[in-house]
Give the backbone structure.
Amino acid sequence: MKERTFTRRDFLKVAGAGAAGATMLGAAGCGSLANSFTQVPDEYLPSGGSRMNVILVIIDSLRRDHLGVYGNDWIKTPNLDALAKESLRFDRSYPESLPTILARRAIHTGIRTFPFRDWQKWYDEDVNLWGWQPIPRGQVTLAEILLGEGFYNLMVTDTLHQFRPFYDMHRGFHAFDFIRGQERDLFRPPSPASEKKMENTLIGGPSAAHSAEIMRQYWANTMDRQTEEDWFAPQVFTKAAEYLEMAKESQPFFMFVDNYDPHEPWDPPQKYIDLYSDGYDGPEPVTSSSGPSDWLTERQLERMHARYSAEVTMTDHWLGHFLDKAQGLGILDNTMLILLSDHGHAFGEHGYAGKVAGALYPELTDTIFFVRHPGGKGAGTTSDHYASTHDVAPTILGSMGLEPHPQMGGQDLSVMLDGKEPGPRPHFTAGYHDHVWSRDEKYAMFSLYNGSDPHLFDLENDPKMDKNIASSHPAVVKKMFDEYIIKDAGGPLPHY
Amino acid sequence: MSFLLKWSGILCVPGGVLWALTPTGVYISNLAFHTPNVFWKLFWPAPLLILLGLVGLQLRQSGRSGLLEKLGFFVAILGLVMVIAGDVGLYWLGVDDRFIVTAPAYSAFRLGLLVLAVGSILFGVTSPRDGALPTWGLLPFVVGSLCGLISFSRDLGSFGAVLWILFGVGWAWLGLSLVVEGFSSFLRTRRATRGGVAAKK
């Protein structure tokens, strides 16, 4: 009897079959089989990777069209412009919801705050805007995830809403510093001296009483100012620069710098105001009293805008101080820096001043968004991708090879630093209180939460959104509301 | 000395077993020390034993091995060296603590795993022609190496952990086949020797 030998050809056949089987097993995910492995520990690879430090800077209320790098030719923002040139810059960044706290919820968690389901107003005196509440307990924050990865987390902010009672947005941070006294922060009691400041403060418009209340508190908070270093943006970036020393000894670190300026009140040192306005001698428009702007004269609006622009330049100057310190310490060589704003502010464009939910025009919705990689990846490039606040956390995690938390719905934009594209976003949606907004390549639309009172604009021919064409394009309005807003919201929108 | 080198391939058995115990080790380390790093600090003997075993296996077929098989051997050795260097650099020397952007130790570890899997597959597929290693030991080894390639490429959770285990089992199996073959050969030789003595009588 002839003995059958196992030839090399036989071996390759069997090996090939085994290999193909194993590959298919892996490729298909093999759901049911994988489920049977749930008893096996699920961690088997070493952890590590490109563990950069991370600095995340938020500049509140900074309009996109007020930066040189985005085309502005009269406001001085040399440091932001220089940073943009070293960064991947998004030219279509929008907050997925606004204003302040809603944007920060998305930034901290990577979860959309819109459509404001299960909104719980935390206490009677809190800001009465849909979705304005602390981060829900069940949601994990970026800082908490990085904490688990061994990061040392630091937070510096003067954004008063974050350190109001019960907000605990500093959870997950080792070190945090709240710069007290911004806007209506209940920091110091009014005094005769602060009341005197009210005499030269322009108060009026649709929210006059509220504006007066804010300004009364603000002047009381800021009576002790001596030098420029006592203003808020200087305090925030100076403290953040001090924190850099501590952070350098605790690498890897995550530093969160949240700067409230150029949010109102616009009260920068005079030298900054003089850059953009002179010869004004009336009561100072330091706050906008959100609503129609027809209560302000043209001159008052100009002055208000100049004061805002002055705060933009002051913020830029002190951001530069912070960046210089980071550069000097060598921190920018191994630190990713993300800088974005949360929303803009209107100064009479379209007949509104302030942040009006029913006036979702570019001056309010268009934000800035830079990602600077220490290795220079993506430096000087721009993107038309719709980048947003809830992309921040997945982007930071993704840049370090960490899987985004399953709760996170934002995109990892760090893939763009390697020339790849994140998932397509043919449209984008946002919410602000009882109004919703959406845009695609051709149109922008906003309306009330139930689709009523729509405003539609042809972005190709009318990028500043001056001519409402909703009445002549009902099908487009319906499509944008049903297929963009309702679909992104996962069903009918709640209302309160 | 040559006897020891020839049989050092058996070291693949403890190396493969230790490798296969990784998910369990990580789990215990997490449980006991709240970090997987205690296990990873102790992981380097697994790839080191496999490396020594692989050298022994290669010595068994030296002179008979073809170009591809040699290439597979060297690629696998390179992968093992990278894994060991990565492990030591990451968990003993703290290299990545100082150079956190480039993460050289971690990169070496992860890249080394892939290089090791590719080298193992090449070594396993081309070795049967040389006849120095038992084919029944090489076949599961190749499949295990392929499982390794899949599990090393990205984190696949529990499924990936099983594939990781199979990679270690493949190496242990290959080493074990050497033991069995050696023992069988020993028995055959002894039987033949006894038969020869009996015939002489």
Summary: The radius of gyration of chain B is 19 Å. Chain B touches chain A through 50 residues (CB under 8 Å). The mean pLDDT of chain B is 90.
